Amino acid sequence: MVLELAKPRPIWQIMFSTHHTDVGLLYTIMSIAFFFLGGALALGIRAELFLPGSQIIGDSMTFNRMFTVHGTTLIFLFLLPFASAVGNYFVPIMVRYKDMAYPKLNAIAFWMIPPGGALIWLGFADFSWYATPPYSAISAPGPAADMWIFGLKILGVSSVLGSINFVVTILKCKHPDLPLSKVPLLAWSFLSSSLIVLVAIPSFAAALVMLLTDRLGVTGFFDPAKGGDPIAYQHLFWFTFHPEVYVLVIPAIGMMYEIIPRFSRRPIFSQSSGIFAFVVLSIVGFSSWAHHMYATGMSFTEKTVFMVGTLAAAPASAMHVFNFIATMWGARMRFATPMMWSVGGIALFFSAGAGGVANAAMPFDFITHDSYWVVGHFHLFVMGTIAFGSIGFLYYMFPYITGRMYNETMGKIHFIMSFIGTVMVFFTQHVLGLYGMPRRVFDYMPLPEYIIMNQITSVGAMIIGASMALWLFNMLYSSAKGKEANMDDPWGLGGKYYYPHQAKTPHH
Amino acid sequence: MARAIVLMSILTVLVILPMIHLVFAEPAEAGQYINRKAEIWNLFFKMMTIAFTVGAVVSGTLIWVVWRFRESHPKAKPTKYEEKGEW
């Protein structure tokens, strides 16, 4: 709270502010709070799976509820809002505008998230974050399922409002002297991901309404007994949520584009290739949704088309990796905490991508479908790449937000523990999947291979949990007692920063 | 550097493209299913070979870059952008 330290204000002034840095601060605090809530559920899940049989969770229904809310929370209440936090802080400054295009709409988009999150947490639904029918349409217990549907509906509207704001701010409000090609890549990442949201969300919005009317008994869109088709839901769902992966990953890459050149002390190797890769990813993200559905009886030709569509994302992703490496080549890098998280994120991004290339091939997909391979692959992206990029960026923003420096040693320990834990958990889950362990199970066969790999995974999760506790302590302690930051150059690197405290307009 | 990246991209596309055509060219008759299955497995193994080779090269390069161009490396020197503060 840079601005708050300089001139203290009552909390309600921040809560009801429409200024972009205030809304960014609210997004940051709320998303981190949900990160710890969702993470706590993950630790519960891993504790349960440490050994076969029932351990700490009494029944499979509770287990199902836990992983449903875990997934929903971390995707919709941590990753997406955290990206919005970064966008709110930086996009107006980067396009040299006084605020977001629609400040009130911006605040409304934020304030839709707490009720959405409350519905999800108070309901505690049990049908996984896919809400797959026919179970979700016919027999998932209410009101939990209905609350989840309403919660997601609210969060979807919030995403759309936020995206409209980003698109208009970047395209219509940027300074006339600033050509689009010179807009920093972080802002470009928000333009790309916002456009994806606007195209992708409507199909899931429709699916949610159809699911709700099915549950009310009015319709039978996804109920086979009424002539409906559950596979149709999967198409509508994945048309939204495969591109949504890019909505999550593109801002994280944008954050790395801000950090890597800063700590390398040289400009990004190729701005234009970064822009090109963002645009390509935004387009090809829509050509691969059915690779989640190879096992649903599609024709060979359809599967091949989606396989090729999936592989089309590989060159664009590789362009980002090459861009980062080329930027670091010949640099003089300072491995402060944000840089460590970004480089670690790039390494894991590449590993996750390689797994995705393998998994895109349909024969392999048939082996790994609904196995722990998929859990490992997906989490390597969301934790290893997106959360790593986000956490690194929060360290980067910390001096700007609080006016103080975090403890560097604790930050580095946090990274090392998280990196080790992430590799232990998600690489092992890939192997566990190849051994045939199905995902979303409360119990598993007491085979020695299953037991040892589940134990490695659970220990890795506990290491991550401990590192995150250290992070929380570092954040809280340093924001109160940390050394005062040099706001012009917190890391002593030189160069040009985009400081949120450079926001020119007064708070409103 | 930029030329090398462009060249590598073109070579990658040239290697992958004929394989995709091979799969598309397979006839659609039901009796041909085994051939198509063999074809797609073949494509998978080739892609895995490419993925692991490229993966090893890129990961190795990343590790070397991180080690060599850290500021504490004995041969580290200021970048040409540092004097003007332009980045």
Describe what this molecule looks like in 3D.
The complex is a heterodimer of chains A (508) and B (87). With 508 residues, chain A is mainly α. Chain A has a single domain (2-488), classed as Up-down Bundle (Cytochrome C Oxidase, Chain A). Helices cover 70% and strands 0% of the residues of chain A. Chain A has 18 helices and no strands. The mean pLDDT of chain A is 93. Chain B has 87 residues and is mostly helical. Chain B contains two helices and no strands. Chain B has helices spanning 2-25, 33-68. In chain B, α1 runs antiparallel to α2. The mean pLDDT of chain B is 77. Classes of the chains: A mainly alpha (508), B mainly alpha (87). The A-B interface holds A 261-262, 264-267, 269-270, 300-301, 304, 308, 311, 315, 318, 321-322, 325-326, 328-335, 343, 346-347, 350-351, 354, 357-358, 361-364, 494-496 and B 1-2, 5, 9, 12-13, 16, 20, 23-24, 28, 33, 36-37, 40-41, 43-44, 47-48, 51-52, 54-55, 58-59, 61-62, 65-66, 69-71, 76-82, 85-87.
Write the layout of secondary structure elements.
The complex is a heterodimer of chains A (508) and B (87).
Chain A: H1 2-6, H2 11-15, H3 20-48, H4 60-94, H5 103-111, H6 113-123, H7 135-138, H8 144-172, H9 185-215, H10 230-264, H11 271-284, H12 300-311, H13 313-328, H14 337-360, H15 362-368, H16 372-402, H17 408-434, H18 448-481
Chain B: H1 2-25, H2 33-68
